[in-house]
From TrEMBL:
<dbReference type="InterPro" id="IPR004360">
    <property type="entry name" value="Glyas_Fos-R_dOase_dom"/>
</dbReference>
<dbReference type="Pfam" id="PF00903">
    <property type="entry name" value="Glyoxalase"/>
</dbReference>
<feature type="domain" description="VOC">
    <location>
        <begin position="54"/>
        <end position="187"/>
    </location>
</feature>
<dbReference type="InterPro" id="IPR037523">
    <property type="entry name" value="VOC_core"/>
</dbReference>
<feature type="region of interest" description="Disordered">
    <location>
        <begin position="203"/>
        <end position="224"/>
    </location>
</feature>
<dbReference type="InterPro" id="IPR029068">
    <property type="entry name" value="Glyas_Bleomycin-R_OHBP_Dase"/>
</dbReference>
<dbReference type="InterPro" id="IPR052537">
    <property type="entry name" value="Extradiol_RC_dioxygenase"/>
</dbReference>
<feature type="compositionally biased region" description="Polar residues">
    <location>
        <begin position="215"/>
        <end position="224"/>
    </location>
</feature>
<protein>
    <submittedName>
        <fullName>VOC family protein</fullName>
    </submittedName>
</protein>
Amino acid sequence: MRRTRTRSSHVVEGASPKSNLGLYSPAVLRCRRRPTAGHKEVRQPVTSPKPTVGLHHAAYACADLEATNHFYEDLLGLPLVHTEVEHLQEGFFRHVFYDLGDGSCIAFFDLHGVGEKPDWSSSLSRPNGLPVWVNHFAFRATEEKQNEVRARMDAAGIKALMDVDHDWCHSLYYLDPNGIMIELCRDTPGFEPDPEQAHKLLNSTERAADPKVVTSKTATTQLG
């Protein structure tokens, strides 16, 4: 088997000047409250006393590389920072990386005869009989970034699938060209970590909060 590699660009160190999206993880977990006079309390990330594992990149298969690049680079504003071309078996694949602005990336495989089945699907949920919102990728975003992306998406004729106020965060959802749901999530102001309660609810059917109001492009419904 002959393997060659072509690199068309290089991974940048540190934050990208073009992107201010980051991976959303409700557990930038260790937080403390800092009250401010006359304002709602805000929560500040606190460094974990133990070493943590962070995201390097998350990778997915893409059905259409050109459409994927347009969606992530032009509409979401994530710069393409690294591309690899690998020859494998009798085919090849491209591996492309988009910078999230914090040193981590979302990446995609463009596959060409490297073992994929003829009827393969890039969608993560629907082929498995799941609602489209189950498997998704959430980006941390500011309100300004949400509005910027919404404006570009609207101009391109792409409407948000859902706009959800979760009480502790506000989320804007879109479906990418591969059938993968992406979320732009901003803390409002985030949640207070409570490992004890979280473990208690692992085996509970108790609703922890009221159903959330969901505004979609077709209807307003409730989650939960």
